[in-house]
Amino acid sequence: MAKKKIRSKEEDLPDKSKHVSYNLHFREAHIDNFNIDFLRYYNKKEFFFALLGSFLGFLLWRRFVFLSGYFDWLSLNQLYLLVVAGGVCFFLITTFIAHLAVNNIVKSARIVGRRGLFTFTVMAVTFVLLSLLTGAINKDTLMLYVIRYFLICIMLEAVFAVPLDYGLAFVAGLWDKKDKKIR
Amino acid sequence: MKKSKGNWTLEDIKKKEENLLKELSEVKVLEHILIKKVDKSINKEEAKSRKAYFEVMHFSFNDFAQAIIGACVFSFAPFLDTDPWNYIPLINTMFLFSIHIFFMLCIIIALNYEFRDKFNLNWWFIKLLLKRFFYIYFSVAMVMCLVLVLIARLDYLITAETAFRNFLAIQTVGLFGAVTFSFLKK
């Protein structure tokens, strides 16, 4: 039997198939086609996952890549292009997913850009702090090497941080109520 | 009566409408409860300045452009005069860093006053403000790195410490400019 939408004379009702997301802190409510809370919000849970992933990526870099010179065959320009291309591809993919939920390219790009900025900041700060602590870089290291180490480490951190951050946040979101999520 | 596809009776439609209105009222009740909870958690005094909270919450493209323009205007001096850069090596790194932190705190207080017209701090509002400050800091840092590269104060052959000191110096000036510009505009 075909499902007919019957609208009341009052304001539009959210369709049962849509996901309603409440943000108690900012007193905002969003109606999306499906649950994209893992892209919309950045809380302690997401921060912890990003931190964990960044830490694992840094460990991998420091333990195996830093001294072995595994990425020496790539020039600085190639590394930069790899990182930028990876970032842009990931941004486009997540913007597409958000667009399917929000039906607005600008809003979806804004959501995804903000979300990615936080994860990137966690990765960058992790690199800087742990590099200084472990002695990978010090005050006399040339910027050429600092930038090179940063680009390689960011790539490795992203391999762990992005799936952990976005993936586990998505999985954790599935455990919440289907139609209403109260934060 | 057997219903064919797409053939609804009036009773069915009325039933559906009743159910939908019932759901709507349930959603409204829930919303009312949530709003009550939020209102309770906010200080009565701060509830009056709710407009300030919504303004600080959204960092729009206009705010981004304001920050960039303010930072560029105030950091234009290094393009014209390179003498100040000769004094940077004479300043201790930790002193420069502490000046930077001090300016960041001053900027947070200035932003707090800009939105709330009060100097006293509110923890709930500070959390919103820190997010906005992060956006401003990152926007200004992007532009300042470009400026540093253009004036050859950041290149491959300088040490990390020198780059950090140059960044701290110009970022402080840029942040100052970004916030002052929006303050003057308001």
Question: What are the salient characteristics of this protein?
Answer:
heterodimer, A: 3 strands, disordered C terminus, B: mainly alpha, 9 helices
Globally, the shape of chain A reads elongated
Largest sheet of chain B: none
Inertia-based shape of chain B: elongated
Helix content of chain B: over 70%
- Described by its quaternary structure, the protein is heterodimer
- Mean pLDDT level of chain B: 82
Radius of gyration of chain B: 26 Å
Helicity range of the residues of chain A? Answer: 55-70%
> Could you tell me the mean pLDDT of chain A?
82
Intertermini distance of chain B: 69 Å
Explain what you see.
The complex is a heterodimer of chains A (183) and B (186). Chain A is mainly α. Helices cover 63% and strands 7% of the residues of chain A. Chain A has a 3-stranded mixed beta sheet, with no helix packed on it. Chain A is elongated and about 60 Å long. Chain A starts with 18 loop residues before the first strand and ends with a strand. The relative contact order of chain A is 0.19. In chain B, α4 packs across α8, α4 (61-74) packs across α9 and α8 packs across α9 (160-185). Chain A binds chain B through residues 1-2, 4, 6, 8, 10, 13-14, 20, 22, 24, 26-27, 29, 117, 121, 137-144, 146-147, 180, 182, and chain B through 3, 5-6, 8, 13, 16-17, 20-21, 23-24, 27, 30-31, 34-35, 37-38, 57, 128, 134, 138, 154-161, 163-164.
Layout of helices and strands:
The complex is a heterodimer of chains A (183) and B (186).
Chain A: E1 19-23, E2 28-32, H1 37-40, H2 44-65, H3 76-102, H4 105-134, H5 143-174, E3 180-182
Parallel strand pairs in A: 1-3
Antiparallel strand pairs in A: 1-2
Helix pairs in contact in A: 2-4, 2-5, 3-4, 3-5, 4-5
Chain B: H1 10-41, H2 44-47, H3 50-57, H4 61-74, H5 77-80, H6 83-87, H7 93-116, H8 123-150, H9 160-185
